[in-house]
Design brief:
four-stranded parallel beta sheet; 387 residues; seven-stranded parallel beta sheet; alpha/beta
Length: 387
């Protein structure tokens, strides 16, 4: 839910105050400031504001009071604006102060953070030239409601798993998975490519080579690319318009890099959360398409522990295999420990964000990878899913 939807919801909630007199607001922190600024709360008869820690100070022209200073018998409604302590405050109102009137709590929909921390739709800056392209994604919304999907990543652990059992499952493969020996048996329904991170090795020419190799091996699938790649993809002349959809995120967006917790939902017609690893992108796509069970395979993410970054395939036989500037010729990380630690932290924050969004929609995400350190999602035994 975006900021604008929260404001509409709160204004509707406050309509209960229309005929009330001597309304008390409990809490004088930032949440209350934003309620007064962004909603219609101040149009009602706010008589007193309570704040135990700030009592005696002035706030929006009123002196803040201790609860014991309020005439609760004359109070017709209380708005509880202390986000993390709503239930405790209501309990005190009923038992300690014997208040029997209307209590309005703002967290009744189970949100995990105050409304003002949510992204505004105005924060999702999508270039005009991309808007019509992204609008095509409306056809993907809830396409696979109440179904399950397996996300096939490229960690070395998938060598230990029989992936042929996925022949009749809905699957989404990533990056260079096309090199897997069982590709044609599985025939992924979806193929997801992360935004191309160009450097002195990952050039436009190399991407063009990769795109042609990808299409040659995978053939028919439904492909996802970043909108920034549109011109190059069209110039490759290997994909049909109808088999490609685009997503948009911006690495330069401070909301995405510094505060992934701001993202409350996935809307492929808007900007989505920037990611630090392609599985997080795949999860966002799966959430938008309505899957209620998402299984991850080949997501070890253990480079911080092992100081190595490896895949299931031979890098020397892969077009992009030796093009990662953060890894040396022996698959050792070039980054210092603090850089690797920071990168892992950002990735874990991404995973926690998509888990929170999934939890809000009762979507289950499972890690079916053998080994690895990803501990955000519950582990499942891949074999037992088919027994």
């Amino acid at each position: 839910m975006y900021l604008e939807e929260h404001v509409i919801r709160l204004n509707k909630l406050f309509e209960q105050l229309k005929e009330k007199r001597n309304v008390v607001v409990w809490g004088a922190a930032e949440n209350t400031v934003r309620l007064f600024q962004d909603t219609n709360l101040l149009k009602y008869d706010i008589a007193e504001i309570v704040d135990i820690k700030k009592a005696g100070k002035f706030f929006f022209g009123k002196m803040l009071k201790f609860p014991k200073e309020i005439d609760w018998a004359q109070t017709e409604a209380v708005v509880v604006s202390s986000f993390y302590h709503e239930d405790e405050i209501e309990q005190d109102l009923r038992s300690v102060y014997e208040y029997h009137g209307l209590v309005i709590k703002l967290n009744e929909i189970g949100q995990t953070q105050p409304f003002f921390l949510c992204l505004s739709r105005a924060d999702l800056h999508v270039d005009q030239k991309f808007q019509d392209l992204l609008k095509r994604n409306e056809g993907l919304k809830n396409r696979h409601k109440n179904k399950r999907i397996f996300i096939l990543c490229c960690g070395p652990s998938i060598h230990q798993q029989d992936l042929t059992v996925l022949k009749n499952e809905i699957t989404m493969a990533v990056s260079s998975f096309y090199m897997h020996k069982d590709l044609k048996t599985i025939q992924p329904d979806y193929y997801c490519n992360a935004q191309w991170a160009r450097n002195e090795k990952l050039t436009d020419d190399l991407e063009m080579e990769y795109l042609k190799e990808l299409k040659k091996h995978v053939g028919h699938s439904h492909y996802f690319f970043a909108v920034q790649e549109k011109e190059l993809i069209e110039n490759s002349h290997v994909f049909d318009l109808e088999e490609v959809n685009y997503y948009y995120y911006d690495y330069n967006d401070p909301h995405g890099i510094r505060k992934p917790f701001l993202y409350q939902e996935v809307d492929l017609c808007q900007e989505i959360m920037p990611v630090h690893s392609v599985p997080v992108l795949c999860i966002q796509l799966a959430l938008y398409m309505g899957f209620d069970e998402i299984y991850l395979l080949g997501t070890e993410h253990d480079s911080l522990k092992t100081n190595r970054y490896t895949y299931f395939y031979d890098k020397d036989k892969c077009i992009t295999g030796r093009k990662d500037v953060t890894i040396d010729e022996n698959d050792q990380l070039i980054w210092n420990f603090d850089e690797s630690l920071a990168d892992t932290y950002r990735l874990w924050e991404d995973y926690k964000t998509v888990k929170r969004i999934a939890d809000a929609g009762n979507v289950k995400i499972y890690n079916a990878t053998i080994g690895g350190v990803l501990d955000i999602f519950p582990r499942v035994d891949f074999k037992r899913l088919f027994s």
